[in-house]
Amino acid sequence: MVARRLAQAGWDVTVASLVPREALTGDAAAMAAQWTGPVAALAPSMLDGRALVVDALFGAGLARPVDGPVAAVIAACGAERRVVAIDLPSGIAGDTGAVLGAAFEADLTVTFFRKKPGHLLFPGRAHCGEVLVAQIGIDRAVLDTIGPQQFENGLGLWAGAFPTLRADGHKYQRGHTLVLAGGPLNTGAARLAARAALRVGSGLVTTVAGAEAARVIAGHQTAVMVEAAEGPAEFAALLADKRRNAVVLGPGAGLHPGLFDASKAALESGAAVVLDADALTMAAGQADRLWAARRGTLVLTPHDGEFARVFPGLLGGSRAERARAAAAASGAVVLLKGADSCIAAPDGRVAINTNAPPTLATAGSGDVLAGAIGGLLAQGMPAFEAACAGAWLHGAAAEGFGRGLIAEDLVERLPLALQTAEKHLRGRGSAG
């Protein structure tokens, strides 16, 4: 159909097929019957003199590596030609985004009904160019039958659970987040996390550290409170106050056995817990003890290196597959960070985040993310929705800033991201 429409518009069109016309079946045969011109065998020579290539070879159903004439055409395509892919660039696995041998690098991909994981996960995402979703009459009720478990992260996933601001509300109704800091020379990461928790709406936030580090922190913080606690036992005593209902552990906390004990105490307290950075590294080889101690909700936010240390047996597959396997193994929500961060719930749901610009690859960015998730948990968001919302807000805060973004900027831009979210939520009637 594409060839016919282009020819009708005056384009000089060459059609090539991987199989003879008479071997086609179904819709492909029906469309081929409407093409009155010749059909060439697929070969690199068909590209001679052509500025535009329409790739309609395989789409989303490819399950084996491309080879032969398809691989030869992909290699010959070159950067000087524009490529429009139908459904997915040929050579990209629709369920994982993996490159199966070789793949076209499209300038535009037109898909149907909804995006596939291959459009969202790298490296497939990098091969798609701009993605346009065309509706072709498929009723959205079909999703009830299919029951998809993978989604593009967006407001629709968590709008119903997003905290609203009540006219008669007060700070004690919006939770209290604790953030555990490290030594006196390593307080910055915890301070970033604490400020992010406050920015996203946690009613109260306290940074906890040993006495010397607490004095350093007190010189930098105003609205965020400071508590001195020496060792895991004193930290656990702070958690006896159940109003302290969310805890972030790991950012700049230091690699020492006391951090593992503090993590275990937080999990045993029943508070909602975010384990990040050093807390994940300290869990390596003994993570099962932490999973067994959990009494409340738990979110893990590893990057690839931390993931490999905590889940050494789960390193195969796409980022989405690894996150899902880790969530099932730990019983936690797992946010596996990267350019295509994936948030997985123990029940199999996976959200793929797509709004994170490359400027987020900067020191302290992950600390802000962990704090934002902690602040949302403090306000009562379920763990999966809080992690999805945190990742989306994190990306939205960075969008538009450009080069030069640092973590301190990111924290201060969270209100802009919240305003963007609330504007959309009001439009949906989901927030007041």
Output the structural class. Answer: alpha/beta
Shape: elongated
Helix residue percentage? 25-40%
Proportion in β-strands: 5-15%
Q: Report the uncertain regions.
A: none
Q: At the fourth CATH level, what is the homologous superfamily of the largest domain?
A: Ribokinase
List keywords for this structure.
Rossmann fold; 39% helix; ten-stranded mixed sheet; four-stranded parallel sheet; UDP-N-acetylmuramoyl-L-alanine:D-glutamate ligase; alpha/beta
Can you characterise this structure?
Strands 7-16-15-14-13-12-11-8-9-10 form a ten-stranded mixed beta sheet, with helices on both faces. A four-stranded parallel beta sheet has the order 3-4-5-6, with no helix packed on it. It has 19 helices and 16 strands. α2 (26-33) links the parallel β1 (16-17) and β2. Helix content is 39%, strand content 14%. It is α/β, with parallel strands linked by helices. It folds into two domains: 42-146, YjeF N-terminal domain (Rossmann fold, 3-Layer(aba) Sandwich), CATH 3.40.50.10260; 155-428, Ribokinase (UDP-N-acetylmuramoyl-L-alanine:D-glutamate ligase). The protein has helices at residues 2-8, 26-33, 68-77, 117-120, 124-128, 142-146, 155-158, 188-199, 211-218, 231-238, 257-269, 277-283, 287-293, 304-310, 319-330, 365-378, 383-398, 407-412, 414-428, and strands at residues 16-17, 40-41, 52-55, 82-86, 108-112, 130-134, 150-152, 176-180, 204-209, 225-228, 246-249, 272-275, 298-300, 333-336, 342-344, 350-352. The chain is elongated and about 80 Å long. α8 (188-199) crosses α16.
